């Protein structure tokens, strides 16, 4: 029977557990041996107790549990050739020739590097007697399937990533809660949300909660001009009788000179220019925790089924597949194209090509 493994990598998110559960159970239903790699790529490098055969019961109850019960890590060792050599040896020794990776763009980039040098890793393991001739022949090809688990929704080639909807839901609840105390005290709040270099969480939270203003990296406001813009909006809304002012800031927000827009600076402007009693709230990791929402459970489950199908259908001449979600359909395309497109967004921002960055991000903002 076919043997494949699944691991979760990078920052966790709600929906990784449903993804692992579905891969394990669908894989077993298809007659495969399914392994869970614990602690992300670190577990793959370390091997031993970190690589465990999963059975139907191993994942019982995981559909509604946040985070990832097989653990995750941001692994430095896998970035080295030595680390990847050890990872390859561990896969061969367990008879695993296919790997499903659920993680962010960094984790998926690492996965594709691993696959592209697989041939040379196998050759080196053979020449140093770490594997046998027979193993080298049997494991001449590695199948990698990527699926994106990230609250940031920062991956190109997919409309939404696993965990983003749960995160957004949680952020909305928090902003609503802040809203009641803000209204009571007639205060202003600057609320900083996660998202790394991507403004999706901030933008969607602003729409969903009716915030007064939002700062995102993809559409920076002119340095020296945003101060006037926020005061103008906050003042107008107050004149219309609003008792609260809510400004949402993506943690990666920039101005047009690519300087970070800091929550404390926004607070100071509102306090000094408008005399508003202003507080800063940084939501932090509360955004990543908690129960996956229904959408993430469904997205993770259907994408994992597609990932296992991709494992079963993969051939050595096919590029590594990337499981996405576009126009309400689970999709499959080349992993490397998705990674390259994602990097182009970051490049465009660094080159101050903001319209281009927004166009490349378009699927994520279109919904
Ligand atoms: O990529 C997910 C994310 O939560 C980002 O939004 C955030 O910048 C980062 O991870 C935080 O990382 P850590 O949990 O390692 O502090």
Automatic annotation (TrEMBL):
<feature type="binding site">
    <location>
        <position position="11"/>
    </location>
    <ligand>
        <name>ATP</name>
    </ligand>
</feature>
<feature type="binding site" description="in other chain">
    <location>
        <begin position="150"/>
        <end position="152"/>
    </location>
    <ligand>
        <name>substrate</name>
    </ligand>
</feature>
<feature type="region of interest" description="N-terminal catalytic PFK domain 1">
    <location>
        <begin position="1"/>
        <end position="367"/>
    </location>
</feature>
<feature type="binding site" description="in other chain">
    <location>
        <begin position="285"/>
        <end position="288"/>
    </location>
    <ligand>
        <name>substrate</name>
    </ligand>
</feature>
<comment type="function">
    <text>Catalyzes the phosphorylation of D-fructose 6-phosphate to fructose 1,6-bisphosphate by ATP, the first committing step of glycolysis.</text>
</comment>
<feature type="active site" description="Proton acceptor">
    <location>
        <position position="152"/>
    </location>
</feature>
<feature type="binding site">
    <location>
        <begin position="104"/>
        <end position="107"/>
    </location>
    <ligand>
        <name>ATP</name>
    </ligand>
</feature>
<feature type="binding site" description="in other chain">
    <location>
        <begin position="194"/>
        <end position="196"/>
    </location>
    <ligand>
        <name>substrate</name>
    </ligand>
</feature>
<feature type="binding site">
    <location>
        <position position="105"/>
    </location>
    <ligand>
        <name>Mg(2+)</name>
    </ligand>
</feature>
<feature type="binding site">
    <location>
        <position position="279"/>
    </location>
    <ligand>
        <name>substrate</name>
    </ligand>
</feature>
<protein>
    <recommendedName>
        <fullName>ATP-dependent 6-phosphofructokinase</fullName>
    </recommendedName>
</protein>
<feature type="binding site">
    <location>
        <begin position="74"/>
        <end position="75"/>
    </location>
    <ligand>
        <name>ATP</name>
    </ligand>
</feature>
<feature type="domain" description="Phosphofructokinase">
    <location>
        <begin position="4"/>
        <end position="311"/>
    </location>
</feature>
<comment type="similarity">
    <text>Belongs to the phosphofructokinase type A (PFKA) family. ATP-dependent PFK group I subfamily. Eukaryotic two domain clade "E" sub-subfamily.</text>
</comment>
<feature type="binding site">
    <location>
        <position position="187"/>
    </location>
    <ligand>
        <name>substrate</name>
    </ligand>
</feature>
<comment type="subunit">
    <text>Homotetramer.</text>
</comment>
<feature type="binding site" description="in other chain">
    <location>
        <position position="251"/>
    </location>
    <ligand>
        <name>substrate</name>
    </ligand>
</feature>
<comment type="similarity">
    <text>Belongs to the phosphofructokinase type A (PFKA) family. ATP-dependent PFK group I subfamily. Eukaryotic two domain clade 'E' sub-subfamily.</text>
</comment>
